[in-house]
Write a structure and sequence with these properties.
- This protein is an alpha+beta fold.
- About 3% of the residues have low confidence.
- The protein has a five-stranded antiparallel β-sheet with strand order 10-9-8-11-12. Strands 4-7-5-6 form a four-stranded antiparallel β-sheet. The protein has a three-stranded parallel β-sheet with strand order 2-1-3, with helices on both faces.
- It is globular and about 60 Å long.
- It is 35% helix and 25% strand.
């Protein structure tokens, strides 16, 4: 029997527009694979539940980005509804989205991390930080480099602002060097990509604008460094209990070695995204990748 797949996209986060792009690409790929595809632009949870009741999908493809989609919230909903869904489950997603907790897991697993401090933007504005310049300020829970600041001096520190003064932020020492990323596919890491933004750093605009960033695959790094990156990616994937795909990001220089930055349990699926590119490099087409997500979809059993 042909499976009916609901591709869930859009959502409520700051990454809504990119999620719509990912969702459309996934929808097209799954239709080519012969699935019955229903697209749903998430703008209202009650409407989502009504559409699920009407369409009765066999699988939900989670193409949401950012909070509510990547942080385990939507995963928990489908667990309760007992509808199989793609990507990692609630717990792995929640931990992966929380940069502070995932860094603690990395450190306890013998993976090197940068010195860091968790605080709120209100406390940072009032009291500053004990981390020396330069440092990076980012939300504890958000994706796609949203709200990331590189702070090199006092003047730049004054530019760090968020709408909600209670936003939890992570302040971590800025690590110079090559930015590297590794996809873990079915518990196995295969290749390392170097990310080279044309200017400044790999922010939201560089991720999703053609021509703003160069991807070097495989990365031009020593073999032993590549092996360390892949081993770290596999460790984080397995420690969190990720499913199908995850992507871990690192910095590397000869002084500090390989430094873990964060893990993404719901990597982007646009034409510019890193995971489809790494999958293609190892012989997995975009359509086959989407099919794998669907065929490995599951939900947490109630009993």
């Amino acid at each position: 029997m042909t499976k009916k797949v609901m591709v869930l996209m859009g959502g409520f986060s700051s990454e809504r527009e990119v999620s719509l792009i990912s969702g459309k690409s996934v929808s097209n790929a799954l239709q080519k694979k012969g699935y019955i595809v229903v697209e749903h632009d998430l703008t209202d949870t009650k409407k989502l539940l009504a559409d699920i009741d009407t369409e009765k999908p066999d699988v939900v493809f989670n193409a949401l980005h950012g909070n509510w989609g990547e942080d385990g919230t939507i995963s928990a909903l489908f667990d309760l509804l007992q509808i199989p869904y793609t990507h990692s489950g609630m717990l792995a997603s929640a931990i992966g989205m929380n940069k502070y907790i995932s860094k603690l897991i990395a450190k306890n697993s013998g993976i090197r991390i940068a010195s860091s401090q968790k605080t709120t933007i209100k406390e940072f504005t009032s009291y500053g930080t004990t981390i020396d310049y330069p440092y990076v300020v980012k939300p504890v829970c958000d994706g796609s480099s949203v709200g990331v600041f590189i702070v090199r001096n006092q003047e730049e520190a004054l530019l760090v602002k968020y709408k909600d003064m209670n936003t939890e932020i992570l302040i971590e020492k800025y690590i110079e060097g090559q930015e590297l990323t590794v996809m873990c596919y079915k518990n196995q890491a295969y290749v390392v990509t170097e990310i080279k933004p044309k200017e400044d750093f790999y922010d939201y605009q560089h991720k999703y604008t053609t021509g703003f960033t160069e991807h070097i695959i495989p990365a031009k790094i020593p073999h032993e460094i590549s092996e360390i990156c892949k081993a770290y990616a596999q460790t984080m994937h397995n420690k969190l209990g990720c499913k199908t795909i995850s992507r871990s990001d690192f910095r590397y220089n000869t002084k500090d070695g390989v430094i873990f930055l964060e893990i993404n349990t719901h990597p982007g699926m646009t034409d510019l995204s890193l995971v489809p590119e790494q999958a293609k490099h190892i012989g997995i087409s975009y359509e086959d990748l989407c099919q794998t997500f669907v065929e490995e979809a599951s939900c947490r059993p109630l009993k």
